[in-house]
Structures are given as structure tokens and as C-alpha cells.
Amino acid sequence: METSIEKSHHEAHEAAANDRVMFGFWVYLMTDLLMFAILFAVYTVLHGNTMGGPAGRDIFSMQLALLETLLLLTSSFTVGLGMIAARRGSKSHVLAWFGLTFVLGLAFLALEMKEFAEFIHEGHTMQSNAFFSSFFTLVGTHGLHITSGLLWMGVTLIYVIKRGLNAPLLRKLALLSLFWHFLDIVWIFIFTIVYMGAFV
Amino acid sequence: MSEIAHGSSEHGSAKSYVIGFVLSLIFTFIPYYIVVNKVLSGDALLATILAIGVVQMIIQIVFFLHLGRERKPRWQLYFFIGTVGAILVIVGGSWFIMKHLHYNMTPDVSKKLIEKEGIGQLGGKDTGACTGAYTLHNVIIRDGVVSPVLTEARYCDRLVFINNDDIVRDITFGAQENPEDYSGESNVVVRKGRAKTIILNQQGTYRFYDNLAPDVTGIFSVKPADQK
């Protein structure tokens, strides 16, 4: 039989383990942020080198960028609500909120792919000039993160359906939500520097 | 549930997420409104949208990530502050250095003076410099078809030749039997899949054709800037 002292000891141990995992993931996020910072620096330096081709202000659609921002922002909100549901232990709410997040993320990705396809169709590829090289690298790297986040989310949700909300899965969901909020913050800077910055 | 609820960084209530979401929406629409309606311009615009971007980041860090509300020692917060410092050095430093390097190393200085600084006269000669607002006209060449065939533009507008074909286009001004210069240039080479912009700083109606495939041809006409 477990005494209350043993139980609280066990809880403290579990909490410390969670803290370590959280911090480890946080270190990964910060190094990822540094990588994005370097891509931003490259874009800032090279965005004017269009070799006579159109510049950002000539081709970017502000409506599209706004729509993408709203989708990602809303998904960052729904993933937060999903985490609250997870801590309450409500499996159906977790599936609903994370499912909604997944759909919003997918819609964001679809819009981004549409934009890329239009640029490429108009003859603007990564090889066109330094502006497009740095643009596709920066925005594409973010899109790749969104893609892997969606894969991760899909797999985790399948586990939630199969196994219910156990402790390791709750930890995974917490990391996933952290990752998703992080991607939203990176996008805020893409929206600001790449899209709105083009009209300065 | 308690062992998980107490684990790791503090988590927010639904209220904190709602506040964060509403504030984020507000700070998304404000810069969008400023940019689309051209409320500000130049450095003031850049400073404003960057400041709002930073505010937006802080909102999300506080209300979504709940940074700084973890138990002491706050390693996540310290690590974050250190990363932000490194980012400021990388982005700010690159921008600062490259801006100056770039400006002073542009190979064709006179071209820079004419196009960027808007020098109207050089050595007593009119340079035809164009400054200020302009409209962009795309001329798309795909499968050997020029579209639109006729482009009507105004003085100082920009014409963009977009070559969507898999061969290089040597856009030559004038008619095939009678080539003529446009704004001091006889031709513009547009490599496959690329685009090239010319500044329409010479008025009149001009033909152009691909020197390598003369049936690829079009016309552009440049009217005075004020004529609607």
C-alpha cells in the first residue's frame, strides 16, 4: 500500500522528469530559432537582389499572407485549448481541438503551396535570383516545420485514440503544443519582415 | 492527473489563451491596415511594423507559451534571453554591415546614381532618371507566344519580360529589318525561366522581337506620365 509520503515523493520525481524533458525540448526550439534567425538575416541582406526581376511588393498578395496568418494564429489558439482539455483528461475534447488545429495547419500549408506554385508558374524559382532563393528557403523551411508538426500531430492523435490520455502521451501533447506555438511566433516574423516589409 | 498538472512550465487557463488570441488578432490587423492603406511609409513604417511584430511575439510568449511562469530556477527564460541576444547580433549585425557594403560596392556607380538617387542630369546631359511611384507591366512569353502583344504604359513605368520557356530570349528593340535602341540599349537577354525589368524612360511606341526567334514579337507604347 502506498503511503501519502511515498506518493508525493513519486509525484515530485515525475514532475522533475517532466521539467527535464521540457527543458531539453526548449533547448531544441531555441537552436531552431537561431537557424531561422540566420535565414532571416540572409533574406534581409539579399531581398533586394532581384536581377531585374520583380521585387516582393510586385508579387506578394497581402490578403493571402493575412489569411495564412489568421489560420496559423487560430491554430495556435486551438492547440492551447487542446492542452487545457488534455490536462482535464477529456479525450473527446483533446481530439476535437487538436483535430481542428490539424485542419487549420493543413489549410495553411495548402495556401502556402498555392502561393509557391503560382510563383514557380510565373517563372520565379529558387534559381531565379537571390531574392527568390532566400525567400523560398526561409518560408519553405517554416513550411517544412509545419509539415513535420502535422505528421507528429497525426501520429500522436492516433495514439490518443488507441491508448487514451496516459502520462507519456500528455507529455508528448505538451511538447507538440509548444512546437506549434513556436512555429506561430516564427510566422509572425515572416508575415512582418517578408510580406509587410516588402511594402516599406 | 495531478503529477502531470504540476509538471514542467506553468500552463495557462482558457482565459489566458482567449486574451492572447484577441490581442494577437488586434496586433495582426493594425499593421495590415497600416501597410494596405499606406498610412505610413519608409523608415517610420518599417519601425512601426517591426515594433508591432515584437509586441505580438511578447503577447504569444506570455499568453501562449507562459514563459517565465515555470518554477525557479527559470532555465527556459534564461536560455530564451540568451538566444534573443544572439539573434539580435546575427540579424542586426548582418543587416548593418551588408547595407553599407552593398551600397559602396555596387559595380555601376553611375547607374546607381541615376536609378536610385534620381540624378536628373549628369555632365549636363539628361539621364532620364525615373523616381517615385510606378506601375509594373508584365509581358509573359510562353510557348513562343507574347502576352499581351500590346502593352500600354506611362513614362517611368516598368516593363517586365517574363520568359516562361525553356530557351533563352534575346529581346531586341525595333523591327527585325530595322533594329533600334531603346533607352540606349539594343537588347535585353532574358534567360530561361527568368524575368528582366526595364525602365520605360523613353516615350513613343516601340516594337520588340526575339532575335533568336523573330516571330516572337510585341509592341509597347509609352505615353507621358500625366496623360490618363
Number of domains of chain A: 1
- The assigned CATH architecture of chain A is Up-down Bundle
Of all chain pairs, the largest interface belongs to: A-B, 69 and 65 residues
Shape by Cα distribution of chain A:
elongated
- Structure annotation, total helices of chain A: 6
**Head-to-tail CA distance between termini of chain B:** 72 Å
Please tell me how large the radius of gyration of chain B is.
27 Å
CATH class descriptor of chain A: Mainly Alpha
Helix content of chain B: 25-40%
Produce a short descriptive summary.
Chain A is mainly alpha-helical.
Task: Give your account of this protein's structure.
The complex is a heterodimer of chains A (200) and B (228). Chain A has 200 residues and is an all-alpha fold. Helices cover 84% and strands 0% of the residues of chain A. Chain A has helices at residues 4-46, 56-59, 62-88, 91-121, 130-163, 167-196. In chain A, helix 1 (4-46) runs parallel beside helix 6. The longest helix of chain A has 43 residues, at 4-46. The termini of chain A are far apart. The model of chain A has no long low-confidence stretch (mean pLDDT 92). In chain B, helix 2 packs antiparallel against helix 3. Chain B has five helices and twelve strands. The longest helix of chain B is centred in the middle third of the chain and has 31 residues, at 75-105. With 228 residues, chain B is of the alpha+beta class. At the A-B interface, helix 1, helix 3 and helix 6 of A face helix 1, helix 2, helix 3, helix 4 and strand 6 of B.
Which key terms come to mind for this protein?
A: mainly alpha, Four Helix Bundle (Hemerythrin (Met), subunit A), B: 228 residues, alpha+beta, 6-stranded mixed β-sheet, elongated, disordered N terminus
SSE blueprint and pairings:
The complex is a heterodimer of chains A (200) and B (228).
Chain A: H1 4-46, H2 56-59, H3 62-88, H4 91-121, H5 130-163, H6 167-196
Chain B: H1 2-5, H2 14-36, H3 42-63, H4 75-105, H5 109-115, E1 121-122, E2 125-126, E3 136-142, E4 145-147, E5 150-154, E6 158-163, E7 169-175, E8 178-179, E9 187-190, E10 195-199, E11 204-210, E12 213-223
Parallel strand pairs in B: 3-6, 5-12
Antiparallel strand pairs in B: 1-2, 3-4, 6-10, 7-8, 7-9, 7-11, 11-12
